[in-house]
Amino acid sequence: MSQLKNPTLGIVLQNVHKVYKVASNRVDALCGVDLTITQGCIAALIGKSGAGKSTLLHIVGTLDTPTQGKVLLNGTDVSALSDHAASAFRNCTIGFVFQMNNLLPEFSAIENVMLPGLISGTNKGVVKERAAEVLRSVGLSHRESHRPGELSGGEQQRVAIARALLMSPPLLLADEPTGNLDRKTSLAIQDLLLQLCHDHNMTMLLVTHDLELAKRLPEQIVMEDGRIVSRGNL
Question: How far is CA 135 from CA 127, 132, 142, 153, 192, in A?
């Protein structure tokens, strides 16, 4: 596993707290999380439901902001960015793969993959060429014109992965990416994610309840009650 020595080239969380107000109740979703993940690290984030895994992933992905603390991604303090700046940063720096693939049903596979590039304002022809390239890398060049409803669950998730890779992000965040798939398809998607991360030296933080999947990753980070309680190998 290739890693850079500079810890700012990756993910750095410093004393991150996240507090939600639910009715009159206070919910402490994250409680002073400190975490450093260097560029090229591939880690599973595991723990029981309610441990804070998805909250942490959303804050790392700039989809949410911490109540307190600092979040640095490749040296940029994203916790201090405006909504507009965070959106622009996210589009070119972070790829997301979720349990629900969130593909637009009226768009073809290649059109779904093209979306991040079109949002960035990149020339449509350039975006389409790049989208065809990443679809080929996930084994779906023959499915470019098919809409999501014409694809299997595994193929839909491969399209979602291709979309996440379009902007060549250094960071890939995955939240239960194989949770809706059968075992055989799940293993194929796991293999694909690991291979792509190694090939492109991407950092990947993957939330999962699947301990067998977690053990396939080089490192496991265990959360409990909004805190990281252990880190290493299961």
Answer: 12, 5, 9, 16, 12
Closest by CA position to 89, among listed 101, 73, 65, 70: 73
For the residues of 95-113, what is the DSSP string, one character each? EEEESS----TTS-HHHHH
pLDDT tens digit sequence for 126-158: 999 999 999 999 999 999 999 999 999 999 999
pTM value is 0.89
Domains along the chain with CATH numbers:
10-232 (3.40.50.300)
What are the backbone dihedrals phi and psi of residue 87, each rounded to the nearest 5 degrees, phi first? -65, -45
* Predicted local confidence at residue 3, as pLDDT: 36
pLDDT digits (tens, 9 = 90+) for 86-101: 999 999 899 999 888 8
From residue 215, give the alpha-carbon distance in Å to each of 39, 112, 234: 20, 31, 6
CB 61 within 8 A of CB 173: yes
Exposure string (b/e) for 139-164, b if CB count within 10 Å is 16 or more?
Answer: ebeebbebbbeebebbbbbbbbbbbb
Selection from 45, 90, 38 nearest residue 205 by Cα = 45
End-to-end CA gap in the chain:
18
Residue spans of the chain under pLDDT 70:
1-9, 234
> For residue 127, which amino acid is it?
V
